[in-house]
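Next up, sample data.

:::
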Amino acid sequence: MSVLEQAAAARVASIDLARATRAEKDAALLLMADRMVERTDDIVHANGVDITNARESGLSEAMIDRLTLTPERVEAMADGLRQLAVLPDPIGDVVRGSTLANGLELRQVRVPFGVVGMIYEGRPNVTADAAGICLKSGNAALLRGSGSAFSSNAAIVAVLRKAIADAGLPVNTIQLLDATTRDSVKELMRARGLVDVLIPRGGASLIKTVVEQSTVPVIETGVGNCHVYVDSAADLEKALAVTVNSKTQRYSTCNTAESLLVHAEIADTFLPLVLEELQSRGVTVHGDARVAGYDDAVVPATSDDWGTEYLSPDIAVAVVDSLDDALDHIRQWGTGHTEAIVSESTTATRRFVAGVDAAAVMVNASTRFTDGGEFGFGAEIGISTQKLHARGPMGLPELTSTKYVVTGNGHTR
């Protein structure tokens, strides 16, 4: 079946899905979760094929970590579906309403987009998350994962489609597109009129390609070149904990810190502490000339380092002379994802929050908290770094549009 044929089938499924009750959707989500756990061995076995192929092709360890599924990760995917089932259904929510002066009753209510296309790299857990969040928000999903995860994604989607059908919902609510050719990406990007919105999730080149070439409206999920700024008024114990967690809790995520900025006034005290801790955890520090002066193991940073999303045990570190210098650095090199400040100064934190242009700003907290689950939204479909419609973790409300319902009593104008 061609992509356009799949998109047409998704359009039909979306009409029926839009009429599904919350009880019907939640029952399907719970059945999807149970079936995933029951078929864990099949899913992990299929993932093993992808892992073997990835290692033979020389994929980096960070990318292999994103690709890997274990029984624990399959259970976590199932838990994400169960968490979605207990969340409120956004469809039909009244965003605002009023009675106009002429007696007309006006309501703005949430409705599904219709058909959502996803183009994503690596992580097969995105397949379950995207399928679940689209179903709960009443949208049919066209999923185009990477070729490196095709066996894993095919196994997951097969389980989910069978569960959806057994739950009495349209089986084409979820479809997996061919990942063996780039033609499927091109066709999906040109399926305007059949696909309502397209969401790319992956590296900078993927997102750039989709944004520039798609005729389907795009919600941009951005690259995560996240910074931690340690202010002159920082509590150094907090600063060390936030920095280390932001960088090392997991290397392969978009909310991992890739850059550290340290105020010059506390550099003599803080840098020796943080450099030793990072290096003890296997992190390679790419530093400017001032940072290099504190440790011979520091690799001299180039201009490329400041703009790099490493997704690996590497971090770029610079000394800045002021909070304004830190803000200037972030404006030049940040990607609008997540920025963090560590400071005990209310004045400094307020200036940082006001001055940073990002989807999320952390004050004395790790960048790793920018996550739909951590925010209490349940599973997310990505972190949007754009400024239209959705920004930050994209939970259920962000996968909806709205329409106005106007009720009168024979009113004429």
